[in-house]
C-alpha cells in the first residue's frame, strides 16, 4: 500500500481573507509580540501524532488545545497556535458546528487539566474556504473572551515570512494531542506529543492526488515519513520548522495515518471500517470518537 502524504495549507501565502470587528486581518508574516492576528498557513491533516515523542508546553509554549465546552467540561477537538493575547490560529474544518461553544486551553502539556481556559467568542474563516477546491483555505482565526496571560508556558508563535518558499526534504515538526495509532487501539494520550517528518516535492504530491476529488493547491504543502504522521485530533495544529523557529503551516488533511509501502504503486487507500477507497480530510477528535475506530479520515 502506498504511503499517503500529509497535506498542509502553506503558511507563506499572503491574503486579506478574514474580517474581524470591521477590520481586515492581514494574513502576513506574524512576529512574536505583534498585537494583530495575522499570517496564516496550513499543513498536515486533522490527525493525531503517530510515531512521535512526548514534549513539554514550555518547549512549545505557542500551542493551544481547542475543544467544546459544556458547562464545566472541556472535550478536546483540535489543535491551534497562539497568535497574540486574543487570537488563536487553527483549521476551518474544525468548526463546522457553530451551535456549540468552543473553548481553548493554553499553558498546559495536558489537554484535560492545568493552564488557562478561555471561551471562543468569534470564529473567522476565509470566504474562499472550500469553494475553489475542497479544503482549500482551511484556516480559522479564533477570538477569545479575554486576554491570555503570557509567560513561560504561553507565548505567541512566529509565522514564516510571506513569500518564503518551502523546498522538498525540509524537516518539519507536527505537534498535537491526537491519537498515537491509526486504529485508536491505544488510549488517547494525555500529554502533548510531536513528530518529525519531511516535506516532499509539490509536483509529486499533486500527481499522487490527481486521481482523486481533492486538489493540492498552491496554498498547500505535503510531507511524509514512514510510520510517522499526524492523526485524528491534531487538525489545526502547527507544521513547525525547528531550525527557523517558525510555523510553516496548519495540519489540514490527508489519507490514512502513517501508512507505508511502495511510492511507485498507484494511490490506493481503504478505511479500516468501510473498505471504500477515497481521500478525505482527517476527522476531528469528536468525530473520531463518535464513529469509533478507523483510519485517519473524517
Helix and strand layout, with pairings?
Blueprint: E1 6-10, E2 15-20, E3 23-27, E4 43-44, E5 53-54, E6 63-70, E7 73-84, E8 87-90, E9 101-106, E10 116-124, E11 140-144, E12 171-176, E13 193-199, H1 202-209, E14 220-224, E15 238-241, E16 246-254, E17 280-281, H2 285-291
Parallel strand pairs: 4-16
Antiparallel strand pairs: 1-14, 1-16, 2-3, 5-13, 6-7, 6-9, 7-8, 8-11, 9-10, 10-11, 12-13, 12-15, 13-14, 15-16, 16-17
How would you describe what is shown here?
The protein is built from 2 helices and 17 strands. The protein has 298 residues and is mainly beta. It has one domain (6-19, 48-254): Thrombin, subunit H (Beta Barrel). The strands form 3 sheets. The protein has a 6-stranded antiparallel beta barrel with strand order 1-14-13-12-15-16. Strands 6-7-8-11-10-9 form a 6-stranded antiparallel beta barrel. β6 and β7 (73-84) form a beta hairpin. The longest helix has 8 residues, at 202-209. The model is unreliable at 13-49, 181-185, 226-232 and 257-298 (pLDDT under 50).
Summarize the structure in short.
The protein is mainly beta and 298 residues long. The protein has 2 helices and 17 strands.
Which key phrases capture this entry?
single chain, 298 residues, mainly beta, Thrombin, subunit H, 6-stranded antiparallel β-barrel, 6-stranded antiparallel beta barrel, 17 strands, disordered C terminus
The portion of residues forming beta strands comes to 25-35%
CATH architecture: Beta Barrel
What is the CA-CA span between the terminal residues?
A: 20 Å
Q: Cα-atom Rg, whole angstroms?
A: 17 Å
Strand order of the largest sheet: 1-14-13-12-15-16
Subcellular location: Secreted, Extracellular space
Family: Belongs to the peptidase S1 family.
Main location: secreted
Keywords: Disulfide bond, Hydrolase, Protease, Serine protease, Signal
Amino acid at each position: 500500500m502506498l504511503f499517503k502524504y500529509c497535506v498542509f495549507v502553506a503558511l507563506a501565502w499572503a491574503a486579506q481573507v478574514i474580517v474581524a470587528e470591521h477590520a481586515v486581518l492581514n494574513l502576513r508574516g506574524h512576529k512574536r509580540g505583534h498585537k494583530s492576528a495575522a499570517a496564516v498557513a496550513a499543513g498536515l491533516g486533522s490527525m493525531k501524532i503517530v510515531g512521535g515523542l512526548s514534549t513539554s508546553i514550555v518547549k512549545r509554549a505557542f500551542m493551544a488545545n481547542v475543544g467544546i465546552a459544556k458547562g464545566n467540561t472541556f472535550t478536546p477537538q483540535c489543535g491551534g497556535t497562539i497568535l497574540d493575547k486574543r487570537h488563536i490560529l487553527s483549521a476551518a474544518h474544525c468548526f463546522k458546528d457553530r451551535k456549540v461553544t468552543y473553548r481553548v486551553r493554553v499553558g498546559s502539556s495536558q489537554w484535560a487539566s492545568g493552564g488557562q481556559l478561555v471561551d471562543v467568542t468569534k470564529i473567522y474563516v476565509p470566504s474562499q474556504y472550500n469553494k475553489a477546491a475542497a479544503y482549500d483555505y482551511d484556516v480559522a482565526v479564533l477570538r477569545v473572551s479575554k486576554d491570555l496571560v503570557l509567560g513561560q508556558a504561553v507565548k505567541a508563535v512566529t509565522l514564516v515570512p510571506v513569500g518564503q518558499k518551502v523546498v522538498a526534504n525540509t524537516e518539519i515538526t507536527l505537534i498535537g494531542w491526537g491519537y498515537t495509532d491509526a486504529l485508536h487501539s491505544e488510549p488517547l494520550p494525555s500529554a502533548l506529543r510531536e513528530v518529525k517528518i519531511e516535506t516532499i516535492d509539490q509536483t509529486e504530491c499533486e500527481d499522487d492526488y490527481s486521481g482523486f476529488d481533492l486538489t493540492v493547491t498552491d496554498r498547500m504543502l505535503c510531507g511524509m515519513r514512514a510510520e510517522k504522521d499526524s492523526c485524528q485530533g491534531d487538525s489545526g495544529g502547527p507544521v513547525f520548522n525547528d531550525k527557523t523557529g517558525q510555523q510553516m503551516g496548519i495540519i489540514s488533511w490527508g489519507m490514512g495515518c502513517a501508512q507505508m509501502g511502495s511510492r511507485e504503486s498507484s494511490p490506493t487507500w481503504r478505511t479500516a471500517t468501510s473498505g471504500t477507497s477515497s481521500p478525505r480530510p482527517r476527522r476531528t477528535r469528536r468525530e473520531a470518537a463518535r464513529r469509533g475506530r478507523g483510519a485517519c479520515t473524517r
